[in-house]
Amino acid sequence: MKDREIFSGLITTVPFVLRLDGRSFHHLSRDAGYAKPYDPAFSRSMTKTTQALLENSGLAPSFAYTFSDEISLYITSPVFDCRVEKLVSIAAGFASSAFTLFSDVQNPLSFDCRVVPIDESRLAAYFAWRQAEAWRNHINGYAHKLLMDTGLSATAAQRKLDGMKSCDLHELAFSFGVNLAETPAWQRRGTAVYRLVVEKDGYNPVSQEAVRVHRRVSVIDEDLPLFKTPEGASWLAARLSSAGADV
C-alpha cells in the first residue's frame, strides 16, 4: 500500500518559505470576543506562536513574519528531508496546538500551510508582498469597523467598502477622527521574530571569573521598516546574517 502515498516523495528545494494561515479565524474572533479591528491579546498569541515555531518546532527558520492570522517562516537549511507533506503537516499541527495553548480558546482550531520555494534574491520582494497585504488588511479593517460603529451590519459595511481605493479608505477613516498613519506600527507593518547574537554576563567555573559570553536569542520586533524600500531590504539581509552567525 506504500505506493498509494502518491505525494510522499514530493520534496522542495532550499531555501523556501512556509506560509501558515488561520482557517476560519473570523469565527474565532467572534466566538472569543476579540476586539476589532485589532486585539492585543490575539496579536500576542500569534506572536508567541511564531516565536515557538522559530524556537521549538524543529523547522529551524532563519526569520519569521506575522500579521493578522498569517505566519511566514523563511527556512534556509534542509529539514525533514525537505519532504513537502512532512513540512506542511508539522508546521500546521505545531502552530494549531501552540496557538491553542497561548490563547486558551475553547474550541478546536487549525492552520493551513503551503510551501513557497524562493531564493534569497527574492526574499525582500516576498516579504514586501506580504507586508503590503498587512497594510491592506489594516486600512480595510479600520474602515469596516468604523462603518459598523454607525449601525451598519458587517455585510452592509463591506458592500460600502467594495471598490474603494486606499486613498478613499484613508479619507473615510480620517472623517471619523482616525489617522491610519498614526496607528501602532505592528498593525500597519506586521511583526518579525528572528535571532540575534548578543553579549551577556557569564561565569567561568574553572577560572571562577565573571566573563562576557555570546548567546543567540530570539527577538520580537514590532517596529519594522518598509520591506519594499532599499533600507528594508538591507534590514532583512542584516537580520538573516545575524541569525546565521556563529556563537
Automatic annotation (TrEMBL):
It comes from Methanocorpusculum petauri. Its cofactor is Mg(2+). This is tRNA(His) guanylyltransferase. Residues 2-117 form the tRNAHis guanylyltransferase catalytic domain. Keywords: GTP-binding, Magnesium, Metal-binding, Nucleotide-binding, Nucleotidyltransferase, Transferase, tRNA processing. Belongs to the tRNA(His) guanylyltransferase family. Pfam families: Thg1, Thg1C. The keyword Nucleotide-binding applies. It comes from the Archaea. Its EC number is 2.7.7.79. Residues 123-201 form the Thg1 C-terminal domain.
